Every structure is written in structure tokens, then in C-alpha cells.
């Protein structure tokens, strides 16, 4: 066995162990979030998803995805995406006021649910998103790392976890890197852990919907036979409320 094989195996075990911890730690909270989302679907509400920087990868995971919810509206501003400017995206996330601007454009109602993805959970944008939504009576689900937040600078005076309705903790260590285990410098785990949490939620949601007889609005892949036809009704229903569906 080569050294590279051993190294790869060690990393794989590390990730699998982390995801197992994430699943066990969030079991009760995932049930609570599934109830919130199911209630929003039944009320014909929207699931709004937001993040900044690399947390926008989680937002992309929730939107227009095969097997995903069609009632998801991504909350987005170009300044927050590193590919539109890495340094400026960091500055935008730390700027007070942007969250209110973005939410006003998107619209928000008490029968909606806002997901805010932010592993550090301390910058103005994610914290103010949660505060604005809570003030409007909309439930807020924080997908964050409580441990990372505790050790990061409190730039917004509070953390995302402190102002959310429900917290899903991705258990990401401060700095995000995981390898080598004793002195980590690479292999960020936040995207993997956060995507895993979202899919754990989808699984619970499907099970609860089946139990209660609720028809979930789920996308089909556009690259399988009949996918476009299956999605046509969903597009007609949601396109006026989700401009990103184009």
C-alpha cells in the first residue's frame, strides 16, 4: 500500500466521522426544520435561501436542483460572490445594510422560511438577514458552526445562531480546514457538511409529506425522459415569484 493511499484513506475516514457526528447532533433540529418547511409548503409559501462567499455553494444546492424543492427562492447579490471579486465579496459580507436591501427586493412573509448559510455566522450580512426576517415574523433556520462563531470576531454584535429560530450546526472547526488532523491546513469541510445537512432535511421532508399526504413540489431532472414536461406546471406556478427561474 502506498503512502498516498494511506493518506487518502485517513482523510476519507475523517470526513465520514464528521458527517456521522453532524447527523447525530442535528437529529432533533432537523425534525423541527422539516415541520417548518412542510408548513410553508402547505401555505404555498416560499423557502428563501441565502449566504455569502463560499456559503453561496449551499444556496446553489437548494435551487432548481433535480429532486429539490421548486418553491425555493435564492437570495443573492453579485457583490457577495468571490468570482465577482474576492476581496470585495469579503467587504460586502461585512457591510451593514446590504441584508435589508436584498430582503426588501425579495419580499418576505410570515408563512415563508428563511435559511441563512454561514459557517462563521458573525458578519453583518448573515446576522442582519436573520434579524430582518425575525422582525418580519418569518422563521429563520441558521446553518452554521456554533464553535466557529464562538471563536470568530463578533463583527455584527451577535451571531447568526443567537438570532435564528432553529440552528443546524455543521460542527465545522474554526478555520474550516481538516487535514492533517493534528495541524489542519487544507480540506475545508463546510461545503460537504452543509450539503449533507440540506439533504438530510430533504429526506425527512419527503417522509413527513408522505405520512401527512402532502404533495411536495419537487423538480425532476431536465436530462431524463419526461423531465421537462414534469417541471412545466411547477414553472408556471412559481416563475412569477422566483425571477431566478427565468
Automatic annotation (TrEMBL):
InterPro entries referenced in this protein's UniProt entry, alphabetically: RpiR-like_SIS (IPR035472), SIS_dom (IPR001347), SIS_dom_sf (IPR046348), SIS_GmhA/DiaA_subfam (IPR050099)
Domain named SIS: residues: 33-211
Coiled coil spans: none
Domain of life: Bacteria
UniProt-listed NCBIfam families: PRK02947.1
Protein name listed in UniProt: SIS domain-containing protein
Organismal lineage: Bacteria, Bacillati, Actinomycetota, Actinomycetes, Pseudonocardiales
Amino acid at each position: 500500500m502506498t503512502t498516498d493511499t494511506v493518506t487518502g484513506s485517513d482523510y476519507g475516514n475523517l470526513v465520514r466521522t464528521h458527517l456521522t457526528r453532524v447527523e447525530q447532533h442535528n437529529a432533533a433540529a432537523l425534525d423541527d426544520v422539516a415541520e417548518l418547511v412542510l408548513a410553508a409548503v402547505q401555505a404555498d409559501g416560499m423557502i428563501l435561501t441565502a449566504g455569502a462567499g463560499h456559503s453561496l455553494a449551499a444556496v446553489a444546492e437548494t435551487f432548481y436542483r433535480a429532486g429539490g424543492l421548486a418553491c425555493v427562492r435564492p437570495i443573492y447579490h453579485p457583490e457577495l460572490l468571490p468570482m465577482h471579486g474576492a476581496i470585495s465579496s469579503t467587504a460586502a459580507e461585512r457591510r451593514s445594510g446590504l441584508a435589508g436591501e436584498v430582503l426588501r427586493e425579495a419580499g418576505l412573509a410570515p408563512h415563508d422560511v428563511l435559511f441563512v448559510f454561514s459557517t462563521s455566522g458573525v458578519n453583518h450580512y448573515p446576522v442582519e438577514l436573520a434579524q430582518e426576517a425575525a422582525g418580519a415574523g418569518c422563521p429563520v433556520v441558521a446553518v452554521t458552526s456554533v464553535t466557529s462563531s464562538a471563536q470568530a470576531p463578533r463583527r455584527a454584535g451577535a451571531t447568526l445562531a443567537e438570532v435564528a429560530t432553529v440552528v443546524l450546526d455543521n460542527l465545522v472547526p474554526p478555520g474550516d480546514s481538516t487535514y492533517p488532523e493534528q495541524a489542519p491546513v487544507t480540506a475545508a469541510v463546510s461545503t460537504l457538511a452543509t450539503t449533507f445537512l440540506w439533504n438530510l432535511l430533504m429526506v425527512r421532508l419527503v417522509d413527513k409529506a408522505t405520512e401527512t399526504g402532502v404533495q411536495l413540489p419537487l423538480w425532476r431532472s431536465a436530462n431524463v425522459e419526461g423531465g421537462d414536461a414534469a417541471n412545466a406546471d411547477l414553472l408556471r406556478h412559481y416563475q412569477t415569484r422566483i425571477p431566478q427561474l427565468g
